[in-house]
Amino acid sequence: MILIRFGEGESVSVWPGIFHLTRVANTGAAFGLMKNYSRFLTFLTAAAILLILFFIRRSLTSSDRNLSGLTMVGWALVLGGAAGNLCDRLYFGHVVDFLDFRVWPVFNIADSAICFGVFLIILNIFKTAGAKG
């Protein structure tokens, strides 16, 4: 929808001064870091997805099954977000960002899923450490 209705850099105000839809071709990583390293980031994202899948499979097949439900949801969000951004990179050569809150770099739903997934994983680490200590 964003690609059809918006040209590169085009923006429309949803909530003036607070939230806009702005189409941005992100050739870098999160928050615009490493601009113009799309090929390297494509490889890195694919490798990270495979590594996470290996880790999850190993954890699920081990005798103690050491991943909690919260951690599994976190990893699922990270994987889904990474896969979404990888698809963008493979198809368009960049990630399509469009959520613009004007006080933060423009991002997309996949980025949100990755960040929230990492938050859940870290939350579970603190929760587990607090239960042991």
SSE topology:
Blueprint: H1 2-5, E1 11-15, E2 19-26, H2 38-61, H3 69-92, E3 95-100, H4 109-132
Antiparallel strand pairs: 1-2, 2-3
Helix pairs in contact: 2-3, 3-4
Would you give an account of this structure?
The protein is globular and about 50 Å long. Strands 1-2-3 form a 3-stranded antiparallel beta sheet. Helix 2 (38-61) packs antiparallel against helix 3 (69-92). The mean pLDDT is 92. The chain contains 4 helices and 3 strands. It has one domain (2-132). A hairpin with a 3-residue loop joins strand 1 and strand 2 (19-26). Helices cover 57% and strands 14% of the residues.
Main attributes of the structure:
133 residues; alpha+beta; 4 helices; 3 strands; globular
In short:
This protein is an alpha+beta fold.
Major beta-sheet overview: 3 strands, antiparallel
Helix percent band: 55-70%
End-to-end Cα distance: 49 Å
Main sheet strand line-up: 1-2-3
Apparent shape: globular
Radius of gyration: 17 Å
Count of DSSP helices? 4
Low-confidence stretches: none
Judged by helices, strands and strand pairing, the structural class is alpha+beta
Number of strands: 3
Beta content comes to 5-15%
Give the SSE string: HEEHHEH
Please indicate the count of domains: 1
Give the overall average pLDDT.
Answer: 92
